[in-house]
Structure formats: structure tokens, C-alpha cells
């Protein structure tokens, strides 16, 4: 027999937390967690139980739950994910909240997301700002395919394009630029631990000191921002001071870093006042 209770007990005996076990069972058997708890004697088919045990094995080998079930919740929305993109993380919700605070609700404006990955940032912004002209780019065709599926899933019109940061853009200007770039230093031991072992390396590290892409994003942003526009980007736990220095050196004002729920300075940004008198960009 392959009852819900027996299958969950198998997972717990292997050391897997109950929540993860129930997520995998929901994916394999089509049973919501509520139904699993209410009717633990429900019996799954041999095929469903086999799929569940395969997922259980892969999870115990370290494969992320989000990749196993193909989705992850972010900003109260369910997003498609695959090994071609990073797994959405709660810390990035701070970046979305800060961006929304700078985007008017009842007036048209424009925003650009650099390195969009699965598209969680532009989809979340467009979902809450229906008049927003949203543009998003990524260097990876596979990531853009996932972002397109998520935009379609949530009915959020977004202009997606392949670009190495700003390289494919022309004379476009935006009211807001946001980014969650690869910012882990190449020698950081975290790259060989946990979920990061399975995520696309080029979306995690710049193969340098962690600031390679941030330097470019900040340095070139003034050419693509309208006066009074904002640049906001996520970074590592120890990169806030360096990020503020880069913003100040590039001519931004109101430069600041914001803490995530863990008290870590996770996002930095600044206001672009426009070029100085006599200066062109």
C-alpha cells in the first residue's frame, strides 16, 4: 500500500522535513497539503508513488525542491523555475518593495530589469503597476524562455530581450533600473554548498571579486536613466559600502542601503539627478 501517511513517514525517516515531503507528494500525487493532512489514508497509485520516491531520492541527494516541482512562490505569486534560472529568494522581495515605492500607481512610467532570470522582478512590478512600461533583459536565451512563460502565466505585458547588461539597448531612457546581478565572489565556499551547487553558476558569480557586474551596472546606468530616475540593485551581505561608493562616484545622490528581514544590508541604490551643468551623457 502507498498511503499518504506511509509515504510521508518514509520521507521523514530519511531525514527530509515534513513540509518538503508534502510539497513533493503534492507534485507527484496531485494532493494538496490540506488533503494530505485531512485524509492521511488516501492511497496513491503505483506510478504516483514511484514518482514520489524518485523525487525523494533526488532531494536527499541535494537537488533543490523548487527544481523538482518546477515552481516557487515569490511576492505572493507562483513562478515557474528550472535549472536555467536562479531559485527566487525572499530577500529579493525587498528590491521589489523598494522599486514599487518609486513607481507611481496612476501614471505611466518605465522600468528596466537587468539580468531578469525567471522574470520574478518585472512580473511582480508589472502586476502591481498596470501602467508600467516594463523592459527586461538577460544574456541567457534559456532564462528568457522561462521569463516569457512567467509573464504569460500572470498576464503581465513585458518586453523581453537578450542583452549583455546594457549592450543591446540604444537610446532608451527609464524612470527606474533594477537588477539582481551575480555578486558572489568566485572563491566563495557557498558556491559548493546547498542549493547553489545546482543553480546556474553564471547567475551566481561574476568569476571575480563579486563587484564586476555591479561596477558596470552602476557606471553605465546614467546613460539610461531619465533625470529623477532611480537605480536599485541587490548585492552580497558585505558589499553595501562598496556599492554606495560606486553610486556616489557615478554622480548619484540620495545614496542608501536597505536591510532585509535578517538585518543585512541587501539592496543599495541612488537617485539620478541628471547630468551636471555642461555635462552630456
Automatic annotation (TrEMBL):
Reaction catalyzed: L-glutaminyl-[peptide chain release factor] + S-adenosyl-L-methionine = N(5)-methyl-L-glutaminyl-[peptide chain release factor] + S-adenosyl-L-homocysteine + H(+)
Alphabetical UniProt keywords: Methyltransferase, S-adenosyl-L-methionine, Transferase
Gene3D superfamilies xrefs: DNA helicase RuvA subunit, C-terminal domain, Vaccinia Virus protein VP39
PROSITE patterns to which the protein is assigned, alphabetical: N6_MTASE (PS00092)
Record GO terms (molecular function): nucleic acid binding; peptide chain release factor N(5)-glutamine methyltransferase activity
Residues noted as binding S-adenosyl-L-methionine in the record, renumbered to the chain: 115-119, 138, 165, 180
Pfam families: MTS, PrmC_N
Sequence positions that bind substrate: 180-183
Keyword S-adenosyl-L-methionine among UniProt keywords: yes
UniProt keyword Zinc present: no
Enzyme Commission (EC) number: 2.1.1.297
Enzyme class: transferase
UniProt domain Methyltransferase small: residue ranges: 99-209
Domain Release factor glutamine methyltransferase N-terminal: start-end pairs: 14-70
GO biological process, one term: methylation
Family named by the database record: Belongs to the protein N5-glutamine methyltransferase family. PrmC subfamily.
PANTHER family: HEMK METHYLTRANSFERASE, MTRF1L RELEASE FACTOR GLUTAMINE METHYLTRANSFERASE
Purpose of the protein: Methylates the class 1 translation termination release factors RF1/PrfA and RF2/PrfB on the glutamine residue of the universally conserved GGQ motif.
Name the record gives this protein: Release factor glutamine methyltransferase
Amino acid at each position: 500500500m502507498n498511503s499518504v501517511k506511509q509515504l510521508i513517514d518514509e520521507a521523514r525517516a530519511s531525514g527530509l522535513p515534513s513540509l518538503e515531503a508534502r510539497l513533493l507528494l503534492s507534485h507527484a500525487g496531485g494532493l494538496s497539503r490540506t488533503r494530505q493532512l485531512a485524509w492521511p489514508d488516501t492511497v496513491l497509485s503505483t506510478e504516483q508513488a514511484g514518482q514520489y520516491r524518485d523525487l525523494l531520492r533526488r532531494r536527499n541527494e541535494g537537488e533543490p525542491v523548487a527544481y523538482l516541482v518546477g515552481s516557487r512562490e515569490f511576492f505572493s505569486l507562483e513562478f515557474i523555475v528550472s535549472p536555467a534560472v536562479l531559485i527566487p529568494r525572499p530577500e529579493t522581495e525587498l528590491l521589489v518593495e523598494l522599486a514599487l515605492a518609486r513607481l507611481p500607481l496612476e501614471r505611466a512610467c518605465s522600468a528596466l530589469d537587468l539580468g531578469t532570470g525567471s522574470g520574478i522582478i518585472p512580473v511582480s512590478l508589472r502586476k502591481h503597476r498596470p501602467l508600467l512600461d516594463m523592459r527586461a533583459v538577460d544574456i541567457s536565451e534559456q532564462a528568457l524562455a522561462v521569463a516569457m512563460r512567467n509573464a504569460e502565466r500572470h498576464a503581465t505585458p513585458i518586453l523581453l530581450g537578450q542583452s549583455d547588461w546594457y549592450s543591446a539597448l540604444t537610446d532608451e531612457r527609464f524612470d527606474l533600473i533594477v537588477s539582481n546581478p551575480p555578486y558572489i565572489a568566485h572563491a566563495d565556499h557557498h558556491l559548493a554548498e546547498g542549493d547553489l551547487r545546482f543553480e546556474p553558476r553564471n547567475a551566481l558569480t561574476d568569476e571575480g571579486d563579486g563587484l564586476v557586474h555591479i561596477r558596470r551596472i552602476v557606471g553605465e546606468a546614467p546613460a539610461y536613466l531619465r533625470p529623477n530616475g532611480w537605480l536599485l540593485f541587490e548585492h552580497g551581505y558585505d558589499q553595501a559600502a562598496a556599492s554606495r561608493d560606486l553610486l556616489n562616484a557615478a554622480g548619484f545622490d540620495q545614496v542608501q542601503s536597505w536591510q532585509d528581514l535578517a538585518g543585512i544590508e541587501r539592496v543599495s541604490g541612488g537617485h539620478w539627478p541628471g547630468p551636471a551643468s555642461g555635462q552630456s551623457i
